[in-house]
Amino acid sequence: MGPTHPESCSVIVVGSGLAGLAAASAALRSNANRVILLERAIKPGGNSIKASSGMNGAPTRFQNQAHPDNAFFSDTLKSAGKRGTFSAVERDQRKRLIKLLTNESAAAVNFLADEIGVDLSVVTLLGGHSVARTHRGAGRTPPGADIVMKLLQSLKGDSRFDLRTGCEVTKLIQSARSCDANGPPEIVGVEYLSDNELTSLAGPVIFATGGFAGDTDNLLAKYRPDLAGLPSSNEPRPGMHGLLSNVGATLVDMDSVQIHPTGFVDPLSTSSALKFLAAEVLRGEGGILLHNGRRFVNEIDTREHVSRAIMDLEYTSDRPRQWSVQILLDPGACRAAAPYVSFYEQKGLMSRKKVSELDGTTKKTLKDVSMAAAKHNADLFGRSTFGSWALAGDQEDDQKEVSVGWVTPVTHFTMGGIAINEHCQVLASTLGASELIVPGLWAAGELTGGIHGDNRLGGSSLLECVVFGQIAGEQAAATCRK
């Protein structure tokens, strides 16, 4: 069946994760006549709805006012590592994007808290951060779900918003000729398939369809074959990157894939390739990682470092490839992360044990951690804070309960993707001093590359969705009004 007649110009957003929702919201606030959001799944929310650690922001009113946070940019740049040093142009572009991400972070937190009504009052220190700056709520709803549901509710209250689920975008429609003789043709709309019917829409297009960590047999296998066999925190679905590269978009950093060190192994389904994430807040609040009862790493170091430390151990299964590591939270950490721990325990991913029930090696480890947490001894792995750790390392600990789960590294986030500039315009080339864009096309969220480099800081995925999603929405709305 051929396409129907195009509808009147609308801002077209593809993908209903947080980046797509933020883009739609910004487009409406920028007076777009209409926003049509296309989602290939039956339910909106994408992977964003599963995000559990929180959202970075600095400096914000929720942080410790006695110690101003001026290190977000430097922490992010340090985490990005050496990637992007191949040319001055690429290096400077990454710095500009990081600066934009961090400078707009406080405004992003304020927007969600003040205009959308999201509770972001609890601030936690995550791995790779020098200051506590990851925001989440005090309630039982994980931050990703809370943000997505409330933002979606806000959008549904606007008559100009049109959400269409079960819609697979199959083509980007190009104009007959290029706006720039040296560049690709302008994107003027999309075609999508729904219920075996092909429909076309006219208007500027924003792509926010996420990464490719779950695209095991295609993009992941192509760019990181060494990660074959690893389980993932992402649903198994194809990445949409090829659709954009077919119209001239440039791909960058595609071999940069983040492994999250702690995906739960469900005791009732150990061979499942899809793992539920053990939120980084568990370690931030004092959780420790054990192999045969012993610690082996600073648990709040970067995800890259912690993952590598686990993967240097001998793995216990190759279908999927996974390791036998315990995550253990003492009573103080359990209280501080109570909504998470309760949820994981209800799902059977964590269980309670008295300290007296643990083996001798683990009990000795708990005593050592208690001494380090109380500053009686230096930590052997260089960990400087143990969050809300409360065990004292004495005999009274024996009757107290800890919560324990089995975790393993999982493919989690792809730092590589579509190249963009500070206006979220999709780039056809990143070479040379002048940019070459794909006109009429914007991108935001995990689909994009060139920001996080070798390693993304925990808490920055939700942030980049809001910051760059809003920019894309504003820019596309302005184009549609011309």
TrEMBL record:
This is Fumarate reductase. Binds 1 FAD per monomer. Gene3D superfamilies: FAD/NAD(P)-binding domain, Succinate dehydrogenase/fumarate reductase flavoprotein, catalytic domain. It comes from the Eukaryota. Its cofactor is FAD. It catalyses: succinate + NAD(+) = fumarate + NADH + H(+). It comes from Sporothrix epigloea. It is an enzyme of class 1 (oxidoreductase). Signal peptide: none annotated. Irreversibly catalyzes the reduction of fumarate to succinate. SUPFAM superfamilies: FAD/NAD(P)-binding domain (SSF51905), Succinate dehydrogenase/fumarate reductase flavoprotein, catalytic domain (SSF56425). Residues 11-462 form the FAD-dependent oxidoreductase 2 FAD-binding domain. Belongs to the FAD-dependent oxidoreductase 2 family. FRD/SDH subfamily. Keywords: FAD, Flavoprotein, Oxidoreductase. Its EC number is 1.3.1.6.
